[in-house]
Fold this protein.
Amino acid sequence: MANTWIVCEDEQIANLISIAKEIGGNVNVLVAGDAQISGADHVIRVPISANVPVEAYAGAISEILAHDVEEGDVVLCVNSATGRVLAGAIAATLDAPVLTGVKEISAGSATRLRFGGIVKEEVAFSSGVVAVIDGTGEAGSDGANAVDKSVEPYSATVSSVDASEGKKVNLASARRIVAAGRGFAKEEDLDIARDLAQALEAELGCSRPLAEGAGWLDRDAYVGISGQHVSPDIYVAIGISGQIQHTAGMVDSKTVIAINNDDKAVIFEKADYGIVGDLYTVLPELTQALK
Ligand SMILES: Cc1cc2nc3c(=O)[nH]c(=O)nc-3n(C[C@H](O)[C@H](O)[C@H](O)COP(=O)(O)OP(=O)(O)OC[C@H]3O[C@@H](n4cnc5c(N)ncnc54)[C@H](O)[C@@H]3O)c2cc1C
């Protein structure tokens, strides 16, 4: 029976633990760093030195797995920038195929989304595989069964960090998200989105132009194919047109509410509820009604 190996940096792997349990066999976790993980049969912790990027340990982590992973085992890596780097290195070392954009996986097959979510692909495999998949949700943290394995990284040191001052958002685990788009004319207008987010107890997210172009919100705050993949209970898209690059990151939301003054905006095709109207009129009224 295939065992599963989960490779991660923190406890946000609840989805991966439940997938591993469905696959059957042992659930093994290799965590880069000192996160305490529960719900696994075995945990290997690889201590990460201060100011050394986790990616510098990709070779050493791959070697650990090459020693312990058996023929036919499934390796799950978290769908993050670091997770994708580790997946590539591990797959190369194990001489195994690597699958990105995976939504579901079992011992011999996987379903993955391609081209920003517009194509669903079924992949069958008869040997081991490395899959990149969303970790979503905290797996608990009793730290049971953990064994530390110290390894040497490649030489790489973070020599300076220039962090933006904005509040850090954790959209991946948010249950409610209010997302703002280019329908907002000025940065200060985002206050009415913040008011709605507060009334809904939601995190504030955005489309890419507000983060990467305008710089009104942190880069961690934008949703989409090159941003965050989110799956909240409620996603409110305000002044967002619904381009595929954006919707690829939010299609797993349970309930989508779109507010747009263009009744032909494609975001309405993804929405469970739509309000056609000027956001500057709709938002204050909605917030007031929620209070
Ligand atoms: C390689 C690549 C990767 C990309 N990755 C991402 C990604 O990860 N995430 C992402 O978001 N984008 C991404 N993009 C950009 C994407 O293609 C779109 O350009 C972007 O999503 C559009 O953002 P928007 O919907 O906020 O703006 P727009 O498309 O300009 O839409 C603004 C919307 O606001 C509405 N509006 C205007 N005024 C009002 C008002 N007063 N009241 C109500 N509604 C109003 C308009 O009707 C319109 O529908 C990517 C693009 C490329 C090429």
